[in-house]
Write a structure and sequence with these properties.
7-stranded antiparallel beta sheet; about 35% strand; alpha+beta; about 220 residues
């Protein structure tokens, strides 16, 4: 193998390894409903349990979101904890905003929750349209603080309804058509506020395989 070929193959390995090492973010279009109100389980209050059914209270806002579930606000409990802090640059993915009481700008400026006491938020992400078929064993990873649960075709695939420090949970998606996908999240007790969801896409896994194969060929050639 000449020097140029080796250089190209090494470059392919680097691309394959770097792409495969990062879980690609699964980013279909979601419909999102946000509730906010006093934390608790009494009548008219938003529960701090991330589980269906949603609260019976009137939602603060509803909108479509297109983009990755990659929302991170690393501020401390005494820091700012608004929807704008949570969505960050991904707020540009919001469309079709509707609310009975606030504009989109006012919504983004709303505090999600305060430290230990005060308002708390409940977000439900409902997939719009079927995302197609998923290969058996495809992994999904959800990282969150406070409560988050992922429902796939009805049942809970990841169930972590009670508030927690930041944790990451991984599960295998069922094979076949995903008829429905619901991600429910509760932010309570003040910042930080974190919710991400990663699904390695088949293209990334194939690219990783190509990179490893190329690396093996280079080592075999040198031997």
């Amino acid at each position: 193998m000449n020097v140029i070929a080796k250089t190209l193959l090494a470059g392919a390995c680097v691309v394959g390894l770097s792409a495969g090492a990062r879980a690609d973010i699964y980013d279909p279009t979601w419909s999102v409903v946000a509730w906010t109100g006093p934390t608790g389980t009494g009548s008219g209050q938003v529960t701090d349990i991330a589980a269906f059914p949603p609260p019976a209270t009137l939602p603060l806002a509803a909108f479509a979101y297109s983009g990755p579930i990659d929302f991170i606000n690393h501020n401390g409990q005494s820091g700012s904890n608004t929807y704008a802090d949570f969505f960050g640059a991904h707020a540009s993915g919001i469309s079709g905003f509707a609310s009975p009481s606030v504009t989109e700008a006012q919504f983004l400026a709303t505090t999600m929750s305060t430290a230990r006491f005060g308002i708390s938020t409940y977000l439900a992400f409902q997939l719009v349209g079927a995302p197609g078929s998923i290969a058996a064993g495809t992994l999904v990873s959800v990282s969150h603080d406070d409560g988050a649960s992922l429902y796939v075709n009805g049942p809970a695939l990841i169930s972590s309804p009670n508030p927690t420090p930041q944790i990451t949970e991984t599960a295998s998606l069922p094979s076949g058509l995903l008829a429905s996908l619901n991600l429910v999240y509760v932010e309570a007790n003040g910042a930080p506020a974190i919710l991400t969801m990663d699904v390695p896409e088949p293209a990334s896994l194939a690219l990783l395989g190509s990179g490893l194969l190329g690396l093996g060929l280079i080592r075999r050639r040198r031997a």
